[in-house]
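Appendix B. Worked example

We walk through a single record from start to finish. Start with the input: the chain for Nucleotide-diphosphate-sugar epimerase, Streptomyces chryseus, length 248.
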Amino acid sequence: MTTILVTGGTGTLGRLVTERLRTDGHEVRVLSRHSRTYPVDLREGTGLAEAVAGVDTIVHCATTPRGGDELAARHLVEAAGPAGVRHLVYISIVGVDQVPLGYYQSKLAVEKLIEESGLGWSVLRTTQFHDLVLQLLQGSAKLPVMLLPAGVAVQPIEVAEVAARLAELATGAPAGRVLDLGGPEVRSFPELARAYLRASGRRRTLLNVRLAGKAYRGFRAGGHLTPQRALGEVTFEQFLAGSLPARG
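Next comes the structure step. The output line below is what the pipeline stores for this chain.
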């Protein structure tokens, strides 16, 4: 079996990718700032040479909307080349080339950096995770009135399904930009908010708010959706049933 390094291996997605690969018998190195074995800060780049030595494949899950993804990816690529890494797998987001959001633009820049790295590579774009949508709704529900972006739909997907696809790519040959992976349904924010309120037993008034800016227009236009690739199976309601405390 191959040695696979997972960046961000203690995060929501990276942890599941790591578990899946280890279950399949692969040796997996977990790279994160808090890892006991490979404590690497990708933005600093220190310790990377030791972490990637002898690694066949890297699954790059580490990311942050606070900035620094491009620098982290550059350090990773610079270490991977001399180490003889065969395959670099990157998780991106549907719509990074359609929605002019700062975080999306950073993800797109990382895609291009990887494509031009000289390494074998695979890039998978997916829609938003159920977990992210739940966090947004929980934050909005802290107020008596839930403020929702008017005219915006999302296509949430189960993170375990994304992890399974990444593990599949990591154990295969470099495939370039693979087909996008979307959740099973395109849903409006009011629909998702009502589902959350039912599951959590809360009562809130919903208020659609029209926002300004190019990014919001991109979301309204559906640039972050891929209805033709609705291959996920777990619905938002099924996710909520397994994520929220049981109601008495």
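Two observations about the output. The chain has nine helices and ten strands. The chain has one domain: 3-243.
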